[in-house]
Design goal:
By secondary structure, the protein is α+β, with helices and mostly antiparallel strands. It has 2 domains: 84 residues, Orthogonal Bundle (Arc Repressor Mutant, subunit A), CATH 1.10.10.10; 143 residues, Chorismate lyase-like (Chorismate lyase), CATH 3.40.1410. It contains 6 helices and 10 strands. The N terminus and C terminus are likely disordered.
Length: 262
């Protein structure tokens, strides 16, 4: 990353600050203003941020607010700090943390085994037909994406992926072959500026659905593992629900207290 000689201008930041939601606490409001500048292209990768004291002088915020906002952006991968040089906008490829809920470690090498996905179908479904699984969406309909998910050397699992209907227009197109291997977390960030902040897991031994049995070529009824992941953004709004249906004999898994499962 190469730094430019001059700091970023404060005018775009001031504009987004004035247009941002005033009910937010100040460090969140400042974070949102910076994020808007980055997404709009006003602040580009490699450019150096103004000094913390300069931001304080331009906005009605204190030093602790600026430091907290910058710390949040560093944690989210939007900003990097370079010792003795200052804070810089991160490279675009590093601005979106890939959130792979389904992943494991190789038992021999310890390396992460990243998932492959194949989309089977895309449809719109009624949330009320899924009971408590989708009630937090607070919507009558959502998009459902049925997929096979697997890592090298493993049998596939069946996954139903749910997200708000307004995000369907952000997909490449409605042909399922264009969605194979797609990162919906990257899509949400690049198209809508939405990032996943936390994931809530739940797992139980249950009968797998008829669709899962058919897709996995299993004789029904088949008792396996249902693994639900509810994913929330920084404002604690539900953005994604994933339900994995794992057949018997699947490798042991561990639910981790972070954005990944190993």
């Amino acid at each position: 990353m190469s730094a430019k000689p001059d700091n970023l201008p404060l005018e775009p930041l001031l504009g987004y600050w004035k247009a941002s939601e005033t009910t937010l606490v100040k460090y969140r409001r400042l974070t949102e203003a910076f994020t808007a500048c980055i997404r709009a292209g006003d602040y580009r990768p490699g450019e150096r941020l103004p000094k913390e004291t300069e931001i304080c002088a331009a906005l009605p915020v204190g030093l602790s607010t600026v430091q907290k906002a910058l710390g949040r952006m560093v944690g989210e991968g939007l900003v990097v700090r370079r010792r003795k040089l200052g804070s810089f906008i991160a490279e675009a490829s590093n601005q979106v943390p890939e959130v792979h809920i389904y992943r494991f470690k190789d038992p021999v090498t310890g390396e992460e085994m990243m998932p492959y996905t194949r989309v089977l179908r895309v449809s719109r479904v009624k949330t009320e037909t899924y009971g408590t699984l989708l009630t937090e969406f607070d919507a009558e309909e959502v998009i459902r994406i049925d997929r096979l998910v697997w890592v090298d050397g493993e049998r596939p699992t069946f996954s139903a992926f749910y997200l708000p209907v307004e995000y369907q227009k952000g997909m490449p197109d409605e042909k399922t072959e264009t969605l194979h291997g797609a990162s919906y977390h990257r899509l949400l960030w690049e198209t809508y500026g939405i990032r996943i902040a936390r994931v809530r897991h739940a797992a139980s031994a249950e009968l797998l659905s008829g669709m899962a049995c058919e897709s996995l070529d299993l004789a029904a009824p088949h008792v396996g593992m249902l693994w639900d992941a509810h994913e929330f953004d920084r404002d604690d709004r539900l953005q994604i629900v994933q339900r994995f249906e794992l057949p018997r004999g699947h490798r042991p898994m561990q639910l981790a207290e972070r954005k990944s499962v190993l």
